[in-house]
Amino acid sequence: MIELKGKTITAVVEPEAGMSLLDLAIKHHVDWSFSCARGTCARCRCLVTEGGDQLEEVTDEEWDRLEPEEFEEGFRLGCQAIVKPNAGPIAAANKPYF
């Protein structure tokens, strides 16, 4: 299961391989901030507190936008954090800069 925490709405949803955390949040009506969905604005930045290893590797867009310390803390861009096939539990909360 994937727990997605938006600004005021939290949803627990089935993992869907190949979908981003942002896509899942939108699909399940979680109030997740975003503007571009391409990895340039960082409004979809999220803190992955469980299951970071269940997501595909960090993308070039994320390396361009986030600091190395943020990755160490568990931050990803929701639009770039793609669920792996047969993913286990994941928990993420939308944490935009502004």
How does this model look, in words?
The structure is a single chain. The chain is an alpha+beta fold. Helix content is 19%, strand content 22%. It is built from three helices and five strands, in the order ββαβααββ. The chain has a five-stranded mixed β-sheet. The radius of gyration is 12 Å and the shape is globular. The termini are far apart.
Give the topology.
Blueprint (H helix, E strand, L loop, with lengths): L1 E4 L4 E4 L7 H7 L17 E6 L9 H6 L2 H6 L1 E3 L12 E5 L4
Parallel strand pairs: 1-5
Antiparallel strand pairs: 1-2, 3-4, 3-5
Question: What are its keywords?
Answer:
98 residues; alpha+beta; 3 helices; globular
